[in-house]
Design goal:
The complex is a heterodimer. Chain A is mainly alpha-helical. Helices cover 74% and strands 0% of the residues of chain A. Chain A has one domain (9-357): Amino acid/polyamine transporter I, CATH 1.20.1740. In chain A, helix 1 (9-21) crosses helix 12 (267-296), helix 2 (24-36) packs across helix 10 and helix 6 (80-112) crosses helix 7. The longest helix of chain A is centred in the last third of the chain and has 34 residues, at 324-357. The two termini of chain A are 24 Å apart. Chain B is mostly helical. Classes of the chains: A mainly alpha, B mainly alpha.
């Protein structure tokens, strides 16, 4: 095994939660409400189903091939050359996802807080931090996630200060345009929840692998609950029309908080939460990419390729994306299908073939 | 931005190779090949005008073009 470190299923949950939702909190409410209007909260509930199918396939495949990741067992299931091609596609999608995620982080920070800082500086600083963590190994990444993630969740609780300003009546009329807009609104969040697929790289390193599936389901459930909480909160605060015409409704919600002239300007907390969440997300996705490449090319250690893969992720975050508008188009209309195909359909096909062969 | 990226990537690639030079003798030929190939790929890519060069996104958009209608903005 390339990774000698061992983590618990509980620690894995702390790594995977920000992979799913670190960036989702900021961008998903706008995208879902553009399609589903005031029914956006139903979209987040529906998006749980594809995530659960992905998790089921990955966990069952891991039970069939214990202590192996998808890159290692795909050649055993579908043959050497198809398996390598399959792994290559997954690695490209993963690297691309990491690049997009770091670019999304940099766009938000530059657009709202560090207005004069070059995009490249924000991206490079984040990747340097991730390089440092990954060089220390999976155990350090897990402990970092366990320590930092609770800090990134606290700001979400502070949103409850908005309760007096909320208008629950914004939720009505429910399903006034039927179910199709809700399904369209679920297309993007389901892609985010399908990223639970990345547990395939952590399951072989678990000290208690039998609990892996259980904790995966807990993460998926808590991601869905958190997303629904954010959706409902911005819906009650802003109404469906105001969500859809704002780039970052959650930022508006944080700016709106004003209690006793003391709890004000809390958007700085949102930035702190955004940085912490994205740091864990970037590091985890980066780790998965590096480990996958090392498995595919049969290296004796993944540490030798950390720096070139880090540069590649920054390059993929810049390549073919001239600005924020193109990034938004990519995230709204292309990424959902890309992730759905690579993280749900491909493992599902692999699982069906493995099941038949078993 | 183009020259900035190229300069930064060139420096980082050279530094990484410099710091790994002690380990290179212990690596298998396959590992050396992967290490230098990845460095070569990122160095060549850094020479391009990245934001305006068609790449992965154009390719993936072409593949998933038929599904675009499903999520066309209302």
């Amino acid at each position: 095994m390339l990774e000698q470190g061992k983590i618990s299923s509980f620690q894995m949950a702390f790594i995977v939660y920000p992979i799913i939702l670190a960036s989702g909190f900021i961008t998903l409410p706008t995208i879902s409400s553009q399609y589903a209007g005031n029914d956006l909260w139903l979209s987040s509930l529906i998006s749980f189903v594809p995530g659960m199918i992905t998790l089921f396939c990955i966990v069952r495949l891991h039970q069939m091939y214990p202590r192996k990741s998808i890159i290692e067992y795909s050649p055993l299931i579908i043959g050497k050359i198809p398996g390598k091609l399959f792994s290559f596609v997954l690695i490209v999608v993963n690297l691309h996802g990491s690049g997009l995620s770091i670019r999304q982080f940099a766009e938000f920070v530059k657009g709202n807080f560090l207005l004069k800082t070059p995009l490249l500086v924000i991206m490079v600083l984040m990747i340097m931090l991730s390089v440092y963590v990954i060089r220390q190994g999976l155990e350090v990444l897990a402990r970092t996630a366990v320590i930092l993630l609770p800090l990134s969740i606290v700001p979400l609780i502070l949103l409850l200060l908005l309760i007096p300003d909320l208008n629950p009546g914004n939720i009505f009329p429910i399903l006034s345009h039927g179910f199709v807009p809700v399904l369209k609104g679920a297309v993007v969040p389901q892609a985010w929840l399908c990223q639970i697929y990345l547990v395939t790289f952590f399951l072989p390193s678990l000290s208690d692998p039998k609990k892996g599936g259980e904790w995966g389901l807990i993460v998926l459930g808590s991601a869905m609950v958190s997303l629904t909480y954010i959706y409902l909160l911005v819906l009650f605060l802003l109404g469906p029309h105001d969500i859809s015409n704002k780039n970052y409704p959650i930022l508006v919600a944080f700016r709106y908080i004003s209690r006793n002239q003391f709890f004000e300007n809390l958007e700085a907390l949102l930035l702190a939460m955004w940085v912490i969440g994205n740091f864990i997300k970037t590091s985890a996705m980066f780790y998965c990419s590096v480990l996958a490449i090392a498995h595919l090319t049969k290296l004796s250690s993944y540490r030798m390729i950390i720096i070139p893969v880090g540069i590649l992720i920054v390059i993929l975050g810049l390549w073919d994306i001239p600005g924020g508008i193109q990034l938004g188009y990519q995230l709204r209309e292309i990424t959902p299908f890309e992730i759905f195909s690579a993280y749900l359909l491909l493992p599902l096909i692999l699982f069906i073939i493995a099941k038949i062969r078993h | 931005m183009r020259s900035t990226i190229f300069v930064i990537v060139t420096i980082v690639v050279l530094l990484d190779i410099w710091f790994q030079r002690g380990n290179l003798v212990h690596w298998k030929p396959r590992e050396k090949l992967v290490f230098f190939s990845l460095h070569l790929i990122v160095w060549v890519l850094s020479m391009m005008d990245l934001p305006y060069t068609p790449g992965l996104i154009t390719l993936i958009a072409a593949i998933f073009k038929p599904f675009e209608g499903l999520v066309k903005m209302p």
